[in-house]
Amino acid sequence: MRHLFLALFALPLLAACASLSEDECRAGDWHEIGVNDGTKGRTADYVRTHAKACADYGVRPDVKTWERGRQVGLTAYCTPQNAYREGSRGRRLSPVCPASDLANLLAANDRGLDLYDLESEIDAMDRQINDIRDTLAGLDVDDPQRSALGAELRFLQLRLLQLEARRMRYTRVTFP
Length: 176
Known about the structure:
The chain is an all-alpha fold. The chain is built from eight helices and no strands.
């Protein structure tokens, strides 16, 4: 009985993981599906994921049409602006871009990843500052910890200002 319950519970979760819905499989707009996959930086073998998702409905992808669409989508994915945006979200660039543009794209992606790391550091510092403020709020006025915590708070606030100044340089990035 317990296994039946687990199986019934897991089925909707597995269905939610499918790359395409039944309607999308049956509509079969493989060019548009390919464009969408290309703009997300999906590799050529991703069509197999769609094939598995659509097999349950008796639908097979039109691989050639999908690939033509994916190539169109890759033109939007393989830009310095997008490479930077991917990095700023903590994601490495997918290995789908032409070698001729790769150096510029990887440099933009690395710059975005640097911004992501900087944002993470700023968030962590904000949490530390808030924790210290909360601790200070709970201490008596004459508590000996106040002095040390106050000094640490001022140091963290100064460091936060420095990090925010660095962040300004990253947010003014322009690409050709």
